[in-house]
Write a structure and sequence with these properties.
alpha/beta, 27 helices, five-stranded mixed β-sheet
């Protein structure tokens, strides 16, 4: 009809997805028109009725389900128990942002939310010490906008939903509590306790602490989010309570920590480390370990394992006003007490020590000062098997990771619940250096305490040990430490701490984060131990099979001898770490090309050779290096293929230019060493070489690729004696160069075989850790050295080698390069009882004529396979014990909280009793859940074993 209003759009029905089913990727476009009305206000001005009394609805609540409309009175009554909802008010055209204070909402503390009948404003809450918010002129809007500054008789209340301003009235009855206590009873934490004008809800404080833990959200960013939630258009008008949030969050964190550890039920003050959780699965005498009968804590099963590490990201600047700092939990959590620690640092000798192993970063960091920082990082100790931080064992660094810092941390860790335990294993990145004089440093200090009955066995993590010298592997890795089970020693995670905090605040944050980390590990310990149990079952099976294959083929008298040597090494490792070299092959490395070149040069100088012959060894060695560069460039060009980028082609061109310059210089020098019979302009086709056959791939594939390159110095044949041939060398009167090149070729072959062994071991380790990028790079290195060896051997064949050389340097086959033949991995799948591949025993000096090469390699394989099997058996024993210890720990905690509940009931403290009962139930459920899971897992394993 003319003049009638247009029809309102209708919402088309959309098929609901099945549970857990997402819309398909193309669902949005065809249904775009159907979803459009959902984005528009669904309540028009002509139909505004209060959903309670059906009067004129002027307020719409954005947080109530369905965004209902209310009149002013109903809006107040419906939000007495939801005072932090956001509402909008109808202004004649649209709903404009408003707040419940404008609707007249008042929060009454007491009398079930109703006004106190004796209210006489006896306490004036709103004329206190808190500062007024001062806005800069540029922050004030020049148009009509929201005003969020506190009004008369209102408080600024910060909730998860944003920053609110509401009027709060306290109970004024004669027996009423003080205003701050009334606010606490209603879930408000006042920013000050005298006459507060700002309060935080308990829920916003809990939310901030959880955001800080899980997301790393700083107080500034969190409060900035709340200001934007309050006003997206004018966030600067929202009262700034960032500093109040920082202060109140510290107090809230401290109160919750004390309550969690039972100090709400006790009148005494926490002592060192009592506000920190520790590992439920580590042996703790008197808590989860009860020794019965003739059993002793000296048994290897009760060994404590520690991992030590430093974190240089947790820096801290010098405080601006150190005299204003307030310490709430100094030394009560994981960070050590500052006063005693400072006295230790003042007396400890600061020795600049040079590493006797490799140039480790931790040793060098200890010698680097950073004067703008109060702390250059943190270091500490955690249990190595489960990754739980040890209470009161975290320290600050001042100049880096110095021994005096880690000494204090380790001594404090060794004092935590270790009464009667006599054995501990420590894993530290530089333990080969750190542990040398540890006991001497402890004995010389007044502030370091460690019982003499405690035996410390040093270890290095399986990842860091590969940055050490080769000898450190068998001396310090967990694979060869009795009684430790299967452990990598790398579990300690890095922590993060902001630099701009005060020192006490930083310590509290670190304590809280580490406490939370231990709590999360505690509640997940059931799953962790179940996974360890399954891994141990599989590890025992696999390592047992690998060892049995080696053990069955070994003679009985040799096995007896090897076992005795192993026992002697284990018993001597503390006083003589070199005793653990029993697990290494007694190999004297074959002479390298450089050693042979040096010997030849010295011999030439000794016999006063002619100038043309004095440096001929250096010239031939240069030629061998050019050949190696040619092979490397050939492989790189082939690997790159035709689809190369401009950057790649430029890099190849530069390498070719450098290589061509080296070849030109080498060829010119040939005239001096080969005599007048050699012509540098001879056609290269006359020279005997076939370099392409040395590559792993088909030469035809490379020929197609190399067509794109006009200048190919990598294909140029250089005038070495082996390329000229024996007959032509005789014609040139250069026959004396043949034995020189043969000697250098032997050194070159020794080098390439040595590099092959190293890279095959590295590939084995990379596959274990699934470091696929490292696997690729190592495989490329294996291919390169295999190609160089093949080329070297072909050239040696042209020089008429002797029988000994033919027997020593055999052809290298592709199947011999599998990692199952690597000495570093004797238990890889596919290993057989056959003799090891020939190149593992080239140039071996066994120290005696009666031992064969294969016997020495077999001995090391047997010892390492036995060590791996033993570690897995120990792991199974330890995991089963840790299951019992975990259940006992949970039961001990449940009993502890149950006793507190009874004490609270006797003292008529119902709130304390309720909290204790809830805590006791939590630990009881954890104990029941863990025990049921462990029993079920073990019963399934027994049934599987029977089958």
């Amino acid at each position: 009809m003319p003049g009638s209003p247009p029809e309102s759009p209708t919402i088309q029905p959309v098929r609901a997805p099945t549970p857990w089913e997402d819309f398909p990727d193309n669902a949005y476009e065809p249904d775009q028109g159907s979803f459009m009305p959902l984005q528009l206000p669904k309540t028009m001005a002509k139909d505004r009725r209060c959903i309670v009394c059906e009067q004129d609805g002027v307020y719409k609540c954005q947080d109530c389900l369905g965004e209902p409309l209310y009149c002013t009175g109903c809006c107040r009554s419906q939000h007495h128990h939801n005072p932090f909802h956001w509402i909008s008010q109808w202004n004649g055209q649209f709903f404009e942002q408003s707040c419940l204070a404008q609707a007249g909402l008042v929060i009454h503390l007491g009398h079930d939310g109703k006004q106190c009948p004796a209210l006489a404003d006896r306490w004036d809450l709103f004329k206190g010490d808190e500062h007024e918010d001062q806005l800069e002129p540029e922050d004030l809007p020049f148009v009509s906008g929201p005003e969020f500054q506190p009004k008369e008789n209102t408080m600024v209340i910060i909730d998860k939903s944003g920053v609110h301003r509401l009027e709060i009235r306290c109970c004024d009855c004669p027996n009423a509590l003080s205003p701050d206590i009334q606010m606490f009873r209603h879930g408000f934490f006042p920013a000050s306790f005298n006459r507060p004008k700002t309060a935080f809800t308990f829920s916003v404080l809990d939310d901030f602490l959880l955001d800080n833990l899980e997301c790393g959200t700083s107080a500034m960013n969190y409060y900035s989010k709340l200001r934007r939630m309050t006003s997206s258009m004018f966030p600067r008008l929202v009262p700034d309570r960032y500093r109040e949030l920082m202060r109140v969050a510290r107090q809230w964190r401290q109160l919750k920590t004390m309550k969690w550890h039972g100090f709400g039920h006790r009148s005494d003050i926490p002592s060192t480390g009592e506000l920190a959780l520790f590992c439920p699965a580590c042996p703790q005498p008197g808590i989860n370990v009860l020794v019965a009968g003739d059993e002793s804590l000296d048994d290897w099963k009760y060994t404590r394992s520690f991992v030590m590490d430093g974190n240089f990201k947790a820096e801290h600047l010098h405080p601006i006003k150190p005299f204003d700092e307030v310490w709430l939990s100094d030394g009560l959590g994981f960070m050590v007490g500052k006063d005693r620690y400072k006295m230790h640092l003042a007396e400890a000798a600061d020795m600049v020590e040079k590493s006797s192993c490799n140039n480790h970063r931790a040793v060098n960091q200890a010698n680097a000062a950073r004067h703008k920082l109060e702390s250059t990082g943190i270091g500490g100790v955690a249990c190595a098997r489960h990754g739980c931080f040890v209470p009161h064992s975290m320290v600050d660094f001042q100049k880096g990771e110095r021994q005096m810092n880690m000494d204090y941390a380790l001594c404090e860790a060794a004092r935590h619940n270790m009464e009667g335990i006599s054995r501990a294993v420590t894993f530290y990145d530089i333990n080969c250096q750190y542990n040398k004089h540890f006991r001497a440093r402890v004995d010389a200090s007044r502030f370091l305490e460690m019982t003499q009955d405690l035996t410390i066995i040093p270890g290095i993590g399986l990842w860091h040990v590969h940055g050490h010298q080769d000898s450190c592997y068998v001396r310090y890795t967990s694979n060869f430490i009795d009684g430790i089970g299967r452990i990598d020693g790398e579990i300690m995670e890095t922590l993060w701490a902001p630099r701009g905090m005060s020192s006490p605040h930083r310590q509290e944050c670190l304590d809280y984060q580490m406490n939370d980390s231990n709590f999360c590990k505690m509640i997940r310990m059931k799953r962790t131990l179940c996974c360890k149990y399954k891994l141990a079952m599989n590890g025992i099976t696999e390592s047992g099979k690998a060892f049995n294959r080696l053990d069955e083929a070994a003679p009985a008298h040799l096995k007896t001898e090897w076992s005795a040597r192993e026992r002697r090494a284990q018993s001597s490792r503390l006083n003589d770490p070199e005793a653990m070299d029993e697990y290494e092959i007694n190999i004297k490395k074959a002479p390298s090309r450089k050693e042979i070149e040096l010997r030849l040069l010295e011999e030439g100088s000794a016999r006063n050779a002619a100038p043309s012959r004095r440096f001929v060894a250096m010239w031939i060695s240069t030629g061998l290096a050019i050949e190696e560069a040619q092979i490397a460039l050939l492989i790189e060009v082939q690997r790159m293929g035709k689809r190369s980028t401009e950057t790649q082609r430029l890099d190849i061109a530069r390498q070719q230019d450098r290589l061509q310059g080296q070849i030109d210089g080498f060829t010119q020098s040939a005239l001096t060493h080969l005599g007048e019979g050699f012509d540098a302009d001879d056609d290269p086709d006359d020279l005997n070489v076939d370099i392409l056959d040395d590559l792993d791939d088909d030469p035809a594939d490379f020929s197609k690729t190399s067509d794109a390159w006009t200048n190919s110095p990598e294909l140029t044949v250089i005038p070495l004696p082996s390329n000229l041939g024996v007959d032509r060398c005789r014609h040139c009167m250069a026959e004396d160069l043949i034995p020189l090149e043969m000697s250098l070729r032997e050194g070159q072959a020794n080098d390439t075989l040595h590099n092959l062994r190293i890279h095959l071991q590295a590939k084995s380790q990379a596959l274990k850790t699934r470091a696929w990028s490292q696997v690729t790079s190592v495989q490329q290195a294996v291919s390169l050295h295999a190609s160089i060896y093949t080329k070297t051997r072909k050239q040696m064949m042209k020089l008429e080698p002797g029988q000994d050389q033919l027997q020593k340097f055999k052809p290298l086959l592709r199947e011999q390069l599998k990692i199952s033949t690597a000495v570093g991995d004797p238990n890889a799948r596919g290993q057989r009882n056959e003799s090891l591949t020939w190149f593992w025993s080239v140039e071996v000096d066994l120290g005696g004529p009666d031992q064969s090469w294969n016997e020495e390699f077999y001995r090391v394989h047997w010892l390492r396979a036995k060590a791996l099997r033993d570690r897995w058996k120990e792991e199974m024993t330890l995991v089963q014990l840790e299951m019992d210890w975990t259940c006992h720990y949970f039961s001990w905690r449940a009993t502890q909280w149950g006793d507190r509940m009874q004490e609270s009931l006797e003292k008529r403290l119902p709130g304390h009793a309720c909290y204790s009962g809830r805590q006791s139930q939590m630990y009881s459920l954890l104990a029941q859940d863990a025990q049921a899971a462990f029993q079920d897992l073990q019963s399934v394993s027994i049934e599987t074993g029977d089958e």
